[in-house]
Amino acid sequence: MNNDWQYFNPVKVVSGIGTLSCLHKFTNSGHWLLVTSSGFTRRGLKDTITKQLDRVTLHVYDSVTPNPELEDLEVATQQYRSTHIQGIIALGGGSAIDAAKVLAVTLCAELNQPLVEVLRQSKKYNWDKKLPLVVIPTTSGTGAEVTPFATVWDNPYHKKYSVTGDTIFPDVALLDPALTVSLPEFETLYTSLDAISHALESIWNVNRSPVSEAFAVQSLNLALKALPKLRKQPDDIDARADMQQASLLAGLAISQTRTAIAHAISYPLTSYFNVPHGIACSFTLPTLIEEYLKSKPDYKNRELILRAKELVSSLDIACYINQFATKEDLLSIKKEMHHPDRAGNYDGEMNEVILHEVLLKSLDL
Asked: Among 147, 198, 312, 360, which is most exposed with the fewest C-beta within 10 angstroms?
């Protein structure tokens, strides 16, 4: 563990059933942009928010899709620049929150095409201005409500970028577990796996500190208790609350450490084969836990991560992977999985030979 560390997280978190009704306390008058998906518009949540914000002219961008696309966000930036947006509300899962985080800075950016110029063309730019941002997560997995980065996908080039910096932190996160109860079974599973992955990735991270490790351990304890309950009883509000807390705590952990090898493996799978992120970043976890404990046999939370291995192994995640790609497909892109930006954060032993063995064993479990 790194003994020289610091921790910073400026997000105001308000948690509890009915928290959505507090939204008006964190918005002022003027033009605000609601960033969400079309499903929430159809289900009427947009109307619920509109009624609460009687001093606000609410504009709605409900074209967010899973894994927000660079070109889509660039178009949205151009679309809303002339509207004089004064603040942004994100309603949805990690994709909606990531899209809102990006728009909060691109709408203020002094560049014609901020994402194209900064991400594709590698132009140096400091995201030093942002709009006020309130986020309302409706899934429990990404922890995006408390992290200083937002993922942007550029599928024409099979690339994944991160918009990062202190200005990417939301200002307020409203956590209402009631908003997660209607989440379908499969989405509940793979978002929960994302939270478990974040906790583990922070635990075996070269950047971990006493603070991040405490968050990650508590997150993992909560998730390992909540997920089996939700598999049996999806409307268990206490389990939903526990999973939401687990996601938040893992987000607080990776806001410092960032992710590691499991996520490095996952990104090409999503980019090339559209494997849902929570599946892509978790199918290797049982094997990675085994590998990690080989090099760290005396790790103090050994029993906890072995419990995580037992739970994730029982879910047969490899069968989900096989719905999107074959073993040969995965092995064909393995060189892209050892990207130092994430793989370098892993404090266990890893090289291309071990990675190959991890993939083979993970797919054969």
From this structure: 360
The encoded tokens of residue 315 equal: 């879910």
Q: Coil, helix or strand for 130?
A: coil
Across 50-125, the runs of DSSP E, i.e. the strands, are 56-61, 87-92
Torsion of CA 16, 163, 7, 264, to 10 degrees: 90
Full 3-state SS string of 174-219: EECHHHHCCCCHHHHHHHHHHHHHHHHHHHCECCCCHHHHHHHHHH
Residue 132, helix vs strand vs coil: coil
What is the per-residue pLDDT across 214-230, written as a single tens digit (0 to 9) for each?
999 999 999 999 999 99
Digit-coded pLDDT (tens) for 155-182? 899 999 999 999 999 999 999 999 999 9
Separation between Cα atoms, residue 159 and residue 264, nearest integer Å: 12
Distances 359 to 47, 218, 335, 338 between C-alpha atoms, Å:
46, 28, 12, 12
Query: What distance in Å separates the CA atoms of residue 259 and residue 279, rounded to the nearest whole number?
Result: 15
Which residue shows structure tokens 């049996």?
Answer: 232
Asked if 58 contacts 50 with a C-beta cutoff of 8 angstroms, the reply is yes
Q: CA torsion sign, 356 to 358 to 360 to 362?
A: negative
Copy the structure tokens of residue 346.
């892993």
Instruction: Judge if pTM exceeds 0.90.
Output: yes
CA distance 74 to 106: 8
Question: Hey, what domains does the chain have and what are their CATH numbers?
Answer: 12-178 (3.40.50.1970), 188-364 (1.20.1090.10)
Q: Which two tokens stand for residue 285?
A: 């976890």
Instruction: Using alpha carbons only, give the angle 39, 45, 50 rounded to the nearest 5 degrees.
Output: 130
pLDDT of residue 332: 94
